[in-house]
Amino acid sequence: MQIGMVGLGKMGGNMAERLRRGGHDVVGYDRDPAVSDVAGLKELVQRLQAPRVVWVMVPAGAPTQQTVDELGDLLAEGDIIVDGGNSHYVDDQKHAAELGEKGIGFVDCGVSGGVWGLQNGYALMCGGEKAHVDRVMPIFETLKPEGEDGFVHAGDVGAGHFAKMVHNGIEYGMMQAFAEGWELLEASDVVKDVRGSFSSWRTGTVIRSWLLDLMVRALDDDEHLEELKGYAQDSGEGRWTVQAAVDHSVPLPVITAALYARFASRQDDSPAMKVVAALRNQFGGHAVESK
């Protein structure tokens, strides 16, 4: 199958390579001419045979909006755009409505797999009309891991990115639990082999997982994580998950706490903790540390 791929970064570039290895004809465009097959989106569309499928793999927000708008002016009725970035599901619904007026199909696809996807395959969560998803199925089948799992047509437009959003929220909570457990083990005077303790959990325990494997891999590189600063960024999906929970009146205490923990990691000297320290000193005479 022929497909256009817009955005050939860490994810998009590996996805294009996996598709090529799977026998598909991929025409790729990236702002970096060193990795791009064409000079621009217009040439990309011209290189594709109708009806066309173009997969967009660029950052969420303005870059995706700009790309979808430009493709909407270049593509024709019967073509399909797949947004495989981490877009907000509300944006998907807007894009689908605007493109639908031109007869252009739209599929949103949450993609998980990171830098390991080229080798292991990507978990795919799609939203959109069945006819549009079915058209792209040969691409999905090549990108997904082998076996029954790794792909879902989750529902209407927006469902794919909604499912991916919740997936990332769960990921926040799991990572925070591993992080807190590691910190407690490191603080213990009893446990002498923290890395070995984590590694022992990889077989036979209920918390064995790919994240645990990656945790042990990180400890193999830096056993006490002494080379890292305790700072964690967030991609935005954790925020959207918490906001969706508010919108649907669903309690998410673990995921919300994990998101806030990332915010706290960006404070070298927490203003809130100054208040806590001051109050403890006022009511209990507890010692405070001065700069």
Q: Which homologous superfamily in CATH is the superfamily of the largest domain?
A: NAD(P)-binding Rossmann-like Domain
Order of the strands making up the biggest sheet: 2-1-3-4-5-6-7
How big a fraction of the residues is strand? 5-15%
Rg (C-alpha, Å)? 23 Å
Count of distinct structural domains = 2
Tally of helical segments: 12
At CATH level 2, the architecture of the largest domain is 3-Layer(aba) Sandwich
Verbal overview:
Helices cover 51% and strands 12% of the residues. The longest helix is centred in the middle third of the chain and has 29 residues. It has 2 domains: 155 residues, 3-Layer(aba) Sandwich (Rossmann fold), CATH 3.40.50; 111 residues, N-(1-d-carboxylethyl)-l-norvaline Dehydrogenase, domain 2 (Orthogonal Bundle). Helix 7 packs across helix 10, helix 7 packs across helix 11 and helix 8 runs antiparallel to helix 9. The mean pLDDT is 93. It has a 7-stranded mixed β-sheet with strand order 2-1-3-4-5-6-7, with helices on both faces. It has 12 helices and 7 strands. With 291 residues, the protein is of the alpha/beta class. This is Phosphogluconate dehydrogenase (NAD(+)-dependent, decarboxylating).
